[in-house]
Amino acid sequence: MHVCAKRGVSLAKGHCQTPASPESAIFARMNNARTAPDLLSLATGATKADAEAMPLRAAPHNLDAEQALLGAILVNNDAHERVSSFLDAHHFFDPLHQQIFETAGKLIAAGRPATPVTLRTYFETAPPIEPGLTVPQYLGRLAANATSIINAYEYGRTVYDLAIRRQLILIGEDMVNSAYDAPIDFPPEEQIEDAEGRLFSLAETGKYGQGFVGFGSALTHAIEMANNAYQREGGLSGISTGLRDLDGKMGGLQSSDLIILAGRPSMGKTALATNIAFNVAKNYKAEKQPDGTEKVLDGAIVGFFSLEMSAEQLATRILAEQAEISSEKIRRGMINEAEFKRLVQVSQQMSTLPLFIDQTGGISIAQLAARARKLKRQRGLGLLIVDYLQLLTGSAKRSSEGRVQEVTEITTGLKALAKELNVPIIALSQLSRQVEQREDKRPQLSDLRESGSIEQDADVVMFVYREEYYVERTKPSEGTAEFQTWMEKMQMVSGKAEAIIGKQRHGPVGTVTLAFEGQYTRFSNLAHDQYLPERHE
Fold first, then answer.
1. Can you say how many angstroms the Cα of residue 469 is from the centroid of all Cα atoms in its chain?
2. Taking Cα atoms as reference points, which of 142, 96, 141 lies closest to residue 2?
3. Inter-residue contact 241 to 470 (CB < 8 Å)
4. Which three-class secondary structure string do you get for 374-397?
5. Helix 152-181 crosses helix 22-32 at what angle (to 10 degrees)?
6. How far is CA 184 from CA 187, 189, 239, 396, in A?
7. Measuring CA to CA, which residue among 467, 461, 522 is closest to residue 498?
8. C-alpha to C-alpha distance for 137 and 272, rounded to whole angstroms
9. Is the pLDDT of residue 529 over 70?
């Protein structure tokens, strides 16, 4: 059926003569170009004659819905406001309808009414739709046959959904053509990634940006957050890290926050991140709601992008932390039967944790975002961890402009992703070597490597610092006076680590002292006097 044939049913007889849009031309090619047997023919062994005899299928569209929506807009411009947040001109199947919707939208945006009379000026020179039916006359008929504005939103959703289905068909056709052509510079792996990326992008279309939110609605969300903090054990408004003092300083991990966890090598960045990931996943609790959705009561489902270590290495680390067996002993097989049984027992308890690891190295920020969206759709997501930021890549354009611009794109993308998914993102980051040149080696915001955008885009910047690491490397010769001083200093700093909060949008900055067990690479709460058992003299 011709693209405008439906118009002959409701408004006029004959066929539309408006020039075809690129989308329409593509679908004309899809509907008419059957010069070779298709996939079905190949699969069933049908002949070319059988394939040519198969009925042609028109691309999904609903001209009645398009006409009803346009008519409602021309009669009452408020109808345009109901659909403009998700509907664009290219979503219409009919090229003329695309032009009408786009022109009407521009008039409304300029504060002018969009009616058959005001639109007439822009279509007077357009070729007639058919003998005896000009475009201005067609606009009048759209308005005359308009239905209630009440149904405008539903008409818009129908037009939008059919446009998405047409896009799916295009992606499928491109996949088939690429697989048939098999170009040398486009191997199957890249074809799969390209199709996957386009499908993820299409799935997320229309989900970004929900427009303005009324202050009353924002206040309601703020009260709900306060109520959750009041009801939750520990009085936290965010997700508990499992580290008491750190939670007290931050109020937990807040939704839509980008948290940068930075430090020099061997300070324990990855160890702290895995500790938090395990604690959050272990505490995950949810209950089924009457509408079928799940309400998270505590903890969260965790996604962990391990760009440096493999999933097996990361799992070994967490296993060593929880079983209290050195990861080195596990890797080398230097464990006894009792320790092996403990490993098996702990691994069985951990196997059901909602912790998902992506070990792909060198992925781009766009790929990371697509995979995070996929995880949230399929499994749910409450916390995302990226280890570490400098191993991500930006777009080719930003890469060519230099590493500073590339890192800026990465941090901006991570912050946008945190807001879009409404989850906290912890991104680990390296620090520059200038830390090592100072006498006091505690990190500062100026030590963040490669780009000031890391500090700018982050909601929280937290540094991991272990003085024990530096003191241990200044060990003097035994038997000297310096050795005794060194021993006293080592006793003071041994088993301790500092989480230095250098920036926090929603709370105070400062230092939190944690306990660190180096043999298990595990951070835990530091025992304070008020938490110690009562002493008996």
1. 36
2. 96
3. no
4. HHHHHCCCCEEEEECHHHCECCHH
5. 60
6. 6, 12, 48, 21
7. 467
8. 70
9. no
Distance CA 347, CA 316 (A): 10
Q: Three-state SS for 253?
A: strand
pLDDT in tens, 290-331: 766 777 778 888 899 888 888 888 888 888 888 878 777 777
337-390 per-position pLDDT tens digit = 888 888 888 888 788 888 888 888 778 887 888 788 888 888 888 899 998 788
Q: Between 332 and 230, where is the model more confident?
A: 332
Average confidence (pLDDT) over 397-402: 67
Q: Calculate ∠ Cα 414-416-419, nearest 5°.
A: 110
Structure tokens at 50: 């059988």
Q: What is the pLDDT of residues 435-450, one digit of tens each?
A: 777 877 888 888 786 6
In a 3-state reduction of DSSP, which class is residue 152?
helix
Helical packing angle, 135-144 and 63-75, nearest 10°: 80
Contact in structure between 80 and 74 (CB atoms under 8 Å): no
234-463 to CATH, choices 3.30.499.10, 3.40.50.300, 3.30.470.20, 3.40.50.10300:
3.40.50.300
Neighbours of 83 (CB within 10 A): 23
Helix, strand, coil tally for the chain in percent (to 5): 50, 15, 35
pLDDT at 425: 93
CA distances from 240 to 229, 253, 286, 470 (A): 11, 6, 15, 30
Is there a contact between 232 and 218 (Cβ–Cβ < 8 Å)? Answer: no
Cα distance between residue 45 and residue 176, in whole Å: 18
Q: Could you give the residue ranges of the DSSP H alpha helices within 462-513?
A: 467-472, 481-493
- Residues 6 or more apart whose CB falls under 8 angstroms from that of 340 comprise none
3-state secondary structure 339-370: HHHHHHHHHHHHCCCCEEEECCCCCEHHHHHH
Query: What would the mean pLDDT of 484-511 be, rounded to a whole number?
Result: 84
Task: Tell me the pLDDT tens digit for each residue of 31-42.
Answer: 443 333 443 343
Chain-centroid distance of CA 173 in Å reads 27
Q: Where do the domains of the chain lie?
A: 7-203, 234-463
Superfamily designation of domain 7-203: DNAb Helicase; Chain A (1.10.860.10)
Helix (H, G, I), strand (E, B) or coil at 44: helix
Percentage of residues in the chain with pLDDT exceeding 90? 3
Of 418 and 404, the one with more pLDDT = 418
Give CA 32 to chain center in angstroms: 39
Computed over every residue of the chain, the mean pLDDT equals 77
